[in-house]
Amino acid sequence: MTCLRTEDVSFKAGGRTLVDRVSLVCKSRQFVALLGANGAGKSSLIRMLTGLVSPTAGTILLDDRTVQSFHRREMARRRAYIPQNARVEWPIAVERLVALGLMPQLPAFGDLDATAWCKVEVALRQCGLIHKRHQPADTLSGGELARAMLARALVGNPDILIADEPLAGLDPRHAIEGMVQLAGLARAGRLVIASIHDLTLAARYATHVAILHQGRLTAFGPTQTTLTPANIRTAFEVNARIAGVGTHARIDLGVPAEPAGMR
Amino acid sequence: MVRLAGQSLMLILMVLVLPVAIALSLVVGRVAIPIAELFGGLAAPKPNLAWLILAELRIPRTLLALVVGATLGLGGAALQGLLRNPLAEPGLLGVSGGAALGAVIAIYFGLAAAFVLAIPLLGIAGALAAGALTFLFGRSGTLTLILAGAAVSGLAGAGLALALNFAPSPYAAYEITTWLLGSVAERDWAQIGLCLPFILAGWVCLAFTPRGLDLLTLGEAQAESLGVNLGVLRALVLIGVALSVGAATAMAGAIGFVGLVAPHLVRPFVGHQPSRILLPSALFGALLLLATDIVIRILPTSNELKLGVLTSLIGTPFFFWLVLRLRRLSP
């Protein structure tokens, strides 16, 4: 059982407080959707959760050890991170791209062995890219590249998957498929944390939501009880109407009649 | 697996062509000596003319062309991988400029005439100083590294111009410019012996970078999340390039384009993966520089055409070809 916990975590940069005393506890089998308006501090919080950026105050614990106390390779084996708009810099083959996710498992020198290539193949199949394995990664479409990055993240079999806006730039079908896949990973025992802008998709597939507003965590808990019109209004300054539950949930949004500045 | 075949094919080709080029380099020279007589000198009582030409002129020249070419190819490949920019070349970090400035200072103050090792010694010192300066200002990020390298190159360029401006005599100015044009001719074993440890140390540093360079294909954030210590990787590449390219430049002067061209030409054959480019690029760089040096010896010019001049002459059209290809590839 993996447990990722933040205790009063803050992050300040350039005199501004981007994340303000956030405390939350995430566990295996949860799919936590991180919600919030642009600039609410989602990316900063995500980078701290990955352990790549240290909080300016507070602590982040992975299984009761601070994230900073893990060696970077050890951390790399435990959690996978997909940043926003992940790109490839060289036109390497898709299978080579996915294989890069196995590097933390390998000794410093030496190439991939047969077992490693097996894992790559499994990850490629899982993400529906097996027929593209030899294709240069820069020729993939946006949806395919997102799946390739997911395969890259999953190939090392991490306990935790952290993704920053994994649905950005995906068409509706690929966005839904992405959410289904992330939800499936959580059901299979992983902890999945992803920042997401589409509230309906979050309502349908996330087990938990964490709502950020101006760096503060304004709501955190199971989706059903936390993703309420009141909480949505606080975070996004829009009116929300919620219909249906579970995978049939639908959230209609409307801008409040009076301008936000007049209230 | 087409890519793998391409890679082995290229390596086999280079392993076959390289000995031929080396043999050719030992046979071809200003002094025309029949091959039988040249190698007969090995068995004849020493010293004899054929033996001297081989041991003191052609072998060091061949070795130096190979080592300098390999260094430029390796340094270019490592830098292009680190900066993820196909236009990066080893001189980008300012170490070549620093080495040239150090060597020119040795010529300027007449140290080179008094002491044979003055040029490589001051050249290496200049390269290390330039590398340290670039590292000091630019270690925090990729962009700052490039900017710091440009600033250090500019500083070294200004120093070179100053040396030419205040050259004590026209002859000194001539000597400086000739040295700057780049050559692997007439370097003795003591000079090579001085530079070789630095070059090898640089290669060792670069040998620890392939894993990190591969992971940088995913961008800095993902590379870090996969366990790469970016600070250490940057330092390894910078120190490796400063040591090896710095010492190579201190020996041979400024030789352009090899470090830019070699990684480019091998990249498509190895599936563009940064780690797989390093060794072929080094081999190809060595081959390229040795072949160029042989051509120089064959060309019937009154003054010997300088190595750096010919590599630039060959390299420029390649650059244009690169531009055309990029223009065709990008919509």
The figure for the number of domains of chain B is 1
Biggest sheet layout of chain B = none
Rg of chain A, Å, rounded: 19 Å
Please state the second-level CATH architecture of the domain at 3-86 and 159-173 and 180-262 in chain A: 3-Layer(aba) Sandwich
Per CATH, the class of chain B reads Mainly Alpha
CATH architecture classification name of chain B: Orthogonal Bundle
Largest interface: A-B, 29 and 23 residues
Helix content of chain A: 25-40%
Distance between the termini of chain A: 46 Å
Label the overall shape of chain A. globular
State the total count of DSSP E strands of chain A.
Answer: 12
Q: Per CATH, what is the topology of the domain at 3-86 and 159-173 and 180-262 in chain A?
A: Rossmann fold
Beta-strand portion of chain A reads 25-35%
Count of DSSP H/I helices of chain A: 9
Q: What is the structural class of chain B?
A: mainly alpha
Q: How would you sum up the global shape of chain B?
A: globular
* Multimeric organization: heterodimer
**What's the name of the CATH homologous superfamily of the domain at 3-86 and 159-173 and 180-262 in chain A?**
P-loop containing nucleotide triphosphate hydrolases
What is the helix/strand order of chain B? HHHHHHHHHHHHHHH
Cα-to-Cα separation, first versus last residue of chain B: 28 Å
Would you give an account of this structure?
The complex is a heterodimer of chains A (263) and B (331). Chain A is of the alpha/beta class and 263 residues long. In chain A, 32% of the residues lie in helices and 28% in strands. Chain A has a domain at 3-86 and 159-173 and 180-262: 3-Layer(aba) Sandwich (Rossmann fold). Chain A has helices spanning 42-50, 72-78, 94-99, 114-126, 142-154, 172-187, 199-205, 223-226, 229-236, and strands at 3-13, 16-27, 31-36, 57-62, 65-66, 79-82, 160-164, 191-195, 208-213, 216-222, 239-243, 250-254. The longest helix of chain A has 16 residues, at 172-187. Chain A is globular. With 331 residues, chain B is mainly α. Chain B has 15 helices and no strands. Chain B has helices at 2-27, 35-43, 49-83, 95-108, 111-114, 118-138, 142-165, 170-181, 189-207, 210-215, 220-225, 230-252, 258-266, 274-298, 307-329. Classes of the chains: A alpha/beta (263), B mainly alpha (331). Chains A and B meet through helix 2 and strand 6 of A and helix 10 and helix 11 of B.
